[in-house]
């Protein structure tokens, strides 16, 4: 029973871990990972749409590391009307890859496509991005004054909160193109001799081996052969027989049976062979007197 309980706990832990990982993945794929990333109000000679028009545009980034569908969400410049522009959710173009970007043109011409909004933007406009329920606010940004031609208002980092103006616009691209140290370079900086990496690798290996040992031991103990319990009736009979002494009749019968068994072991022969010892000192083999028949006296 103890092994069964341990095995149940083990399976329950595995299932719980799977549910936690799956829930985390589902949570990571929610629309709450979208953020406003770059806004260009005065577009004179900058990025053009598919119709060749220089329209104001709004860039949104998927900050998660999984694909997320922005379809079904709402964009608006009026907080009292959160469902002003509904983003269609039946297009593969609304599936935004991890850490990728989507561009919307604020030209008040929604008939041109799903990425053309039904409003325009100016200085002082506040943009809102709502979830598919039209109530949960995902992100908002107020466009500051002082907008210049072909100068965008950008988020410095997709995961940060700082904004700045730049004349180096980056539609559908990361705003920060400066060279950053790679993970390997950062690791070498903190561990130039690799001792930490060796220790971490050994700890990981030993931890995995310990987990495997524990799992195999629990499973093996569960499947080992278990002794069968004796029937309660037979056990009670045996205990009763041990506690009660034997009667005199039983002892006499046992003694008689043993006597008869030992006395009947002798074989009965039909012929009796008698050996007579020779009293002569010489060898009887050459004497002929023993070959003559003795005649009876009359």
Question: Could you characterize what this model shows?
Answer:
This protein has a domain of 147 residues: Lamin Tail domain (Immunoglobulin-like, Sandwich). 31% of the residues lie in helices and 15% in strands. A hairpin with a 7-residue loop joins strand 10 and strand 11. The radius of gyration is 51 Å and the shape is rod-shaped. The mean pLDDT is 82.
Low-confidence stretches: none
CATH fold type of the domain at 31-177: Immunoglobulin-like
The CATH architecture designation of the domain at 31-177 is: Sandwich
The termini sit apart by 103 Å
Amount of beta strand: 15-25%
- State the order of secondary-structure elements, H for helix, E for strand: HEEEEEEEEEEEHHHH
Radius of gyration: 51 Å
**What's the number of extended β-strand segments?**
11
The coarse overall form would be rod-shaped
| Major sheet size, sense and barrel closure | 5 strands, antiparallel
Mean pLDDT: 82
Q: What is the CATH class of the domain at 31-177? A: Mainly Beta
Biggest sheet: strand arrangement:
7-2-1-10-11
Structural class comes to alpha+beta
Helix content: 25-40%
Give the number of helices.
5
Keywords: Cell membrane, Membrane, Transmembrane, Transmembrane helix
Pfam families: LTD, OAD_gamma
Biased composition (Polar residues): 163-173
Subcellular location: Cell membrane
